[in-house]
Design brief:
The protein has 13 helices and no strands. The protein is mostly helical and 286 residues long. Helix 3 crosses helix 10.
Length: 286
Amino acid sequence: MNKVKVLRGVSLSLRHLFLLALALFWVAPIVWLILNAFSDFPGLNIRKFVPDGFTMVNFQLLLFDTSDTVARFPMWFMNTLKIAIFSCAISSLFVLMVSYAMSRMRFNGRRSLMSIGVILGLFPGFLSMIAVYFILRSFGLTNNHWGLVLIYAGSSGLGYLIAKGFFDTISETLSESARLDGATEFQVFWQIIIPLSRPIIVYTVISAFLAPWMDFMFASIMLNSGIATDWTVAIGLYRMLDRSFINTHFARFCAGGVLISIPISVLFVIMQKFYVEGITGGAVKG
């Protein structure tokens, strides 16, 4: 019996050590980036994990140095914020409406449409990048922030599955009672279902906001004019890693990485309870 306990203890210890190693492997780059954001050395230093000195100058230069033609962080931030807000609003509306239709309405081809949506969702979005680029270029929407909003919001309705699962958990009798009282389908959706769906709304909004906030691939293809004032944060920070600038702007690049993570981290911490409820609620039914 003691031998079994010893073996279990050893097995448990090895598992924890393995998980600790994975955690350190995952956290180390983030810690290194944060340390370099406060480093007094402006370039890339791969010889030392911890810088020799620390300063706030990198953040000050990134945010307030108007003479720097390489780092236009405030403008990049506002561009990204504008794209993310409009994309989030449109995408969230599309997802919730499609999810409600798939959950509560019955029409010919419903199951086929659901299957097609799931299958299309299995393919990464960048596979359509070239075709989308030429279509939008023919309409003059390349090098245009509204073109990016169309890209992020256009296919958002395909991500209906989790929200649909949450709507499936809401009692159908509430909707039927409202219809008997003369409510239209829109009134049922807006006045009955939406007030009961705060967790899934929070999950949908955060997910819709994250996509444009962190995207690099579509943004770099669409905003290819070379005009720095049109870039998003992802493109701008990437350009700072060019060999011509990395020795003078790497610490500022790290500072930008820290700044861009703050809004979404705060939003997630505040909304974490509802975010988790949205995921688990949407996983109850398919």
